[in-house]
UniProtKB/TrEMBL annotation:
Alphabetized UniProt keyword annotations: Calcium, Ion channel, Ion transport, Membrane, Transmembrane, Transmembrane helix, Transport
Transmembrane portions of the chain: 40-58, 257-281, 301-322, 349-368, 450-470
Species lineage: Eukaryota, Viridiplantae, Streptophyta, Embryophyta, Tracheophyta
Protein name: CSC1/OSCA1-like 7TM region domain-containing protein
Annotated Pfam families: PHM7_cyt, RSN1_7TM, RSN1_TM
Amino acid sequence: MVPVNWTNKGLDRLKHSNLTYSDIDKLSLSNIPNGSASRFWVHLCMAYVITFWTCFMLKREYQNIALMRLQFLANDQMRPNQFTVLVRNIPTDPHESICELVEHFFKVNHPDQYLTFQAVHDATKLSELVKTRKQMQNLLDYNNNKHMRTLSKRPVIKMGFLGCCGEEADGIKYYTSMVESLTREISEEKERLRTGTKSIVPAAFVSFKSRWGAAICAQTQQSRDPTEWITEWAAEPRDIYYDNLALPYVDLKLRRIIVAVAYFFLTFFFMIPIAFVQSLANIEGIEKAFPFLKPLIEVRLLKSIIQGFLPGIALKIFLLFLPRILMQMSKFEGFVSTSSLERRSASRFYMFQFINVFLGSIVTGTAFQQLNSFLNQSANDIPKTIGVSIPMKATFFITYIMVDGWAGVAGEILRLKPLIIYHLKNTFLVRTENDREEATDPGTIGFNTAVSPILLPFIIVFFGLAYVVYRHQVINVYNQKYESAGKFWPDVHRRVLTALIVSQLLLMGLLNTKQAPKSTPLLLVLPVLTIGFHMHCKGRYQPAFVTYSLQEAMVKDTLERTREPNLNLKAFFRNAYAHPEFRVGENLEKEMAVEKPHTTPELVATKRGSWRNTSLPSKHSCPA
């Protein structure tokens, strides 16, 4: 591709015009003259080669990852989430509490497979108390350490604003009394949650005797009303985002509409900093449009910095806080697992990068770069100028890849940011061993072509470095927050194909502006083939990432029963999905026990009238 583009004189013939370009732009499609059919056929053939090669590699990768996922699930040790279903939007009943209603419903509709359930509590107040107690305990440890260093003098604190003024008090006695008081409040709040019913939300974690029974429940409609008794596979206990379990299910659609509107405006208004970044990237265009800035811009050092790395650095700074904003938006939407929060945030970050960083940079960059040309030519010539100037934006993306890609990967292996933050915390905030452990916590890993072939070497270097560095970081540095068994892959597959389709459409538009309309019918075939390939992969491989086949579940259950015939599943599930704050300072076996020893009754226990009592089915009858 490079020799085909370089050996033309298209840009040299436009020297008389107001078009702004550099020597590196001669490596792009812009250097091919309009109407040069023989040269454009090379780009057309390469588009087909890239499309078929990409689809072949994606299909092979999808097949391998789906197989590895099934093998992992088959060989994985027993986990609570393999037997557990999250049930939401449980309807209210005037005769029964939510706990009684859940037990009654699943004993009737899943009589042979239902085992136990864990109620979901709104533990917001308890979480605040536990957090405050942790802070007070940390301050108590600090004052005890301080007293151990100077036994002759007891630590003194001031009770006023930020501990800077007010009445003095003995630090150890004060924080000891605070910890004891908060401990009592926590115990009282736990008892209130355990014995009361007002804190129970219309959701529950229901566990079954087998994976087969859980698969039946999670993947079928439970009620004639599809908006009630909504079931889905429960995530791992460590993956659950408990704060969102208390949200009313009926509010989720409204929340998602609000977030969609907010995301639209965030994307729209971010075009302003994108335009600013592109104004920095096109010095020649600004000099022609605003000659009075030329003396300042022509300073060699300043010009090199502005044209070289300042645009990429500025764009990186503007994007610095975007992942946190998108994560907060996902939390507001109401997703109930950390993995789903990260998948949603990654999806929005991808769309944001595509709309603003890619399309926004192309549009605003082209406008700034060819501003003088647009102002001094007829409207009929503007499409031709766009066709020439858009491929020349490769120079900006080269610098952006170097700043965000190369420098980002180097910074990841050096971990400069965590190192600086650790030393700042160690100097100003670390007072106890708990503080030091939090400061040294590595955290978890975050998720966030034919037109200009000069980009490819930079991208290849980036992916090569990223593979080596992040493989090392995932294995040796970061903590694992949850196990999703490759569930992110369908999103990756879909985004690669989206980028491929966009590149095909852009090439089609560029060739039209370059007066090569005969290529349009042939290029139209590529998006259609790519979409068809996506639908094939979605139907063939994606079910392995969404559902759990009954065949696999039965095989796993049979092998497990053979190896461990006396396994006590009820003890295994007890408190597996209890709110984390219930596990602070107390014996788990005494917390939130919803199952009591009892013999199997002939009738399902209920507080309804006698006409509503439902008999358990016999061996010869059908379940109700």
